[in-house]
Amino acid sequence: MIKIKSQEEIDLMREAGRITRDTLKVVENSIRVGISTKELDKIAYDYIKSQGATPSFKNYGGFPGSICASVNDTIVHGIPSNNIILKEGDIISIDCGAKYKGYHGDAARTFPVGKIDAKVKKLIKVTEQSFFEGIKDLKSGAFVGDISHRIQTFVEKNGYSIVRELVGHGVGSHLHEDPMVPNYGKAGSGPRLNANAVIAIEPMVNMGDKNVVFMSDGWTCKTRDGLPSAHYENTVLITESGVEILTL
Fold this sequence. Notes:
Layout (H helix, E strand, L loop, with lengths): L6 H24 L6 H14 L3 E2 L11 E5 L2 E3 L14 E10 L2 E10 L5 H17 L9 H14 L3 E2 L5 E3 L6 E5 L16 E4 L2 E3 L5 E3 L6 E3 L5 E3 L2 E5 L4 E3 L3
Antiparallel strand pairs: 1-4, 2-4, 3-12, 4-5, 6-10, 7-8, 7-9, 9-14, 10-13, 11-12, 14-15
């Protein structure tokens, strides 16, 4: 069942969203050649705690990090590590959540490390653009499939592929709530979204084909062909007339 949020809950989620957004900015400003993903994780943890919040991801289902730090062909759920050192030309997807007074914000961005290949830069741009395509005309009464179809159409038109195994989701007092929000599907399908529903919309876009492989650590998800992948996510409040992006 899709939970409709009260005004008090929405206000708390706005603050959780702000902390999540600002954490991503702090991490982005720390990205450089030679830093480890574990160091970035510590930076995120310290900032979230400084804001009176807790990291949504830490110990969630046993996940050890405060952020997911996914480099190059890692799509999502990369575990922060002292052994993963960023190099010139890498890309890194940072997925971050903050829990404030019982409510979560959830967002992700893919960042360049130094100068990156023009083709990879385009992948990042198209992934971000696909999110905004997905929320075009989105308002109370729309179907989840309307978002899914818009994202898939835009991504595939640009020559990339959509990951099927991982999807967006509702957000609230739990990090993952109903409904599931796939990045592929048919317009007019799936649950209907009403005002004051809150969802995380998160295109995960592969440069090559859509196939993925899960690593033995139980978390890390990579592209099967070894080509790069990008990720862009925001927490979105549905309103009568449109949307409010809580993590932007």
